[in-house]
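Response to reviewer comment R2.3. The reviewers asked that we include at least one raw input/output pair. We reproduce the pair for Pyridoxamine 5'-phosphate oxidase N-terminal domain-containing protein here without editing.
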Amino acid sequence: MTDLDRLAAEKYVLLTTFRKDGRAVPTPVWAVQDGDTLAVWTVADSGKVKRIRRSGAVTVAPCDVRGRPHGPETPGRASLCDPADTRRVRQLLKRKYQLLGRLTLLGSRLRRGENGTVGIRITLAE
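Raw output as returned:
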């Protein structure tokens, strides 16, 4: 099983982005496999989006809902999705997380609008 398969099978992954001074900022997020990348979804003006826009360096590890890792971390490179790819990520999340995913995404769309969230694509290091 590859790192991508292992991480995509998890309910939550710990996405760690890095501040300018190098400090790690870990966040538990939902994740889904999209081709040969791992995709996650988040609020468009969140700190992690700003940090990814600046550098793109991330690590990803399996974790529980509270962000406690329970497996090795894997380095990767993150990039932000355009609106069409963000819609695709939302559809993949709805399929994986079923009713909870649909309700969460609907609530987010009602609160923030269609452009209030963004997909993030993570290419894992080999």
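The first helix runs from residue 3 to 8. The radius of gyration is 14 Å. Further pairs are available on request from the corresponding author.
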